[in-house]
Amino acid sequence: MFERNASQQAWRERILDFAASHINPLAMEREQTATFDRQLWLACGQLGLTGLSIPPEWGGQGMDAYTTVLALEALGFASEDPGLNFGIAAHLLAVAVPMWKYGTEEQHQRFLPGLCNGQAVGGNAITEETAGSDVFAMQTTATPQGDHYHLNGTKTYCSNGGEADLVLTYALTNPAKGFFGGISAFVLEKDQQHYGWSASREKLGLRTCPLAALLLKDSAVPVANRLGQEGAGGQIFNASMTWERICLGAIHLGAMDRLLKLAAQFANHRFSGGQNLSARQAVTHPLADLKVRLEGARLLTYQAAQQLDAGQRTGLAASMAKLAVSECYKHFCLQLMQLFAGEAYQTPHPVEIQLRAALGATLYSGTSEIHRNLVAREIGFKSALT
Length: 386
Description:
Strand content: 5-15%
Structural class: alpha+beta
Strand order of the largest sheet: 1-4-5-8
Largest sheet: 4 strands, mixed
CATH architecture of the largest domain: Up-down Bundle
CATH superfamily of the largest domain: Butyryl-CoA Dehydrogenase, subunit A, domain 3
CATH topology of the largest domain: Butyryl-CoA Dehydrogenase, subunit A, domain 3
Number of helices: 14
């Protein structure tokens, strides 16, 4: 049911080769210096990674959601740079996909080729200081004036912030209508609109993916840069989050596969008290449990992707997949820290790098608490918050 076809397998092998030759040689150095490598991003675009899901007529690879998951899973397995992996996935799923789904023909021509070929970096701006999980508390406004909107406010935690050439930005156009109907989406272009970035924020993990606040002060954005109809921002954001919650976790699935392989190699070659670690059930049984939990998260992700491709309702499936993968990722890395012990406590080490990345996975794309609320509501708990 979930076997790769020849094309999907060829893409996996292509990504594995690319990561070994282009991403991994300097991955540890970039991680330690928190460096975003623009030339490496361009190379990823030339391979096709930044436009996996976009139709070929706009420069993409035309993958469905399931095939996108398989490709990102391969990237997570092969690449030793979780920040780059995350930046590519966020660019694709939270920027390129909604532009494809909701953009006009003219917007497709202007924006999608650059997003797909790596010439442009995409950023997403919705979170605010007082509007994180509670996006209904958004305060950034977009006021129409002639053939422009004037945007005012501050967006925090913008992935690829400071480097983004195109920023998909959400703002209130009619506060009385609330999130659905009162929010619109706009594409801000570097050097075209008057906006600024804060200094890039230092982060615990995902250090090669820049993070900054978007500063908007009477920033004039042409009506032609509004994505979708006025008031459609809530719908656009929800659709992009469905893609992100299903597909972004695939990079974590791949990372866990690689870590499990490293753990087996470590246990097979490490001796303690005259005995190989792989002969101790205290070592092998927890790893077996991790494998079982990983496969459960993978199945939820694959199933959600296929439901998305089939045009079915995927809100619950997306939440369950995101919750399962992110919690598994964090637990996985903590368990492996115990196995590798002092070796993994030193930096840089693959396990500690992934652990620092994993701690953010239960926060972005909706916190674990938010997804538990969504699942609880589906079960039938009427008072479950959303």
